[in-house]
Amino acid sequence: MASPKYIKTCSIWRSLEIVGDKPSLLLLESYWLGTRRFSAFQKQTGLLKTVVSDRLGKLVAAGCFEKVLYSERPKRFEYRGTQKFYDLYPIALSMLHWEQKWGATDGKIQLSLVHKNCGQTTQPHAVCGDCKIEVDARDVSWSEGPGVGLMPAEYSRRRRKETPVNAKKTPLFDEIADLIGDRWSTLIMRSVFTNLNSYQDICEDTAMATNVLAERLTRLCATGFLQKKDATYRLTEKGRDIYPILLALMEWGDKWYADPEGPPLILTHKPCGNALKSAIICPQCGENVTKGDIRFEFTQQTETADL
Ligand SMILES: [Zn+2]
Ligand SMILES: [Zn+2]
């Protein structure tokens, strides 16, 4: 094997180390819907016991969950979200926003979101924290920050068989979890958002094995995130709409995996000229939405859950 390839340091990459995996996303989703115990995670996600055990262990090791003893005799544990977990909230809401706009509706659990503070049915989405304009990739320019550098793309150690995920529909994120839960696809999207459009440029930027890259590009075109035009890969509207999710992943990575020198990438919001820091708002009342402010109402069931 030749010397390791290097890719640009990126907080999105670091975040994907944790959430760029579909079983992990399903477990996080399940927690948001109220699941706390091992057997309940298994039941709700339909994942194999060994997969649930492995991914919960990884989420604990990553500091997103704590395993807490809740009964001495018999000894029983449950999982509790940490601050790091709750900081994933903007990612979850941005994924949900995308899913409600673009995800297939066939056979999916229908739900509406209610902003508890104003009492209205709402679709929270990401805006610039300063000027409150909805985040759009075309309004953002970027430059290298103090933490920019290179890191080895250690694909060979991480390469693993795709974990079979059962066909059960996930309650909230379905189609979007297929994308974000596959780190290769998300890294390709990151490249295209930085105006790298040719196969060669994307290949160099991601340092992916060519067979994996070719397969993912084909899949991203087939699922409508990209379209191929004159040997270049372009974002479709559906693909461009994942930008707030990438931004939320980047902000989470910047917060929890920052380089001591500072962030690798600095974003400027062109409409207001300020450094872009996103916020999630309720478009009905214009207020910021934070943890615990949203209630789900499942329209085909009577259940509700707080998110
Ligand atoms: Zn702005
Ligand atoms: Zn509201």
From TrEMBL:
Q: Which Pfam families match?
A: HxlR
Gene Ontology molecular-function annotations: DNA binding
Q: Which UniProt keywords apply?
A: DNA-binding, Transcription, Transcription regulation
Q: Which PROSITE patterns match?
A: HTH_HXLR (PS51118)
For whether the record's keyword set contains Transport, the answer is no
Membrane spanning stretches:
none
Could you tell me which residue ranges the HTH hxlR-type domain spans? 10-107, 170-261
Asked if the record carries the keyword tRNA processing, the reply is no
InterPro entries cross-referenced by the UniProt entry: HTH_HxlR, WH-like_DNA-bd_sf, WH_DNA-bd_sf
Give the protein name, as stated in the record: Transcriptional regulator
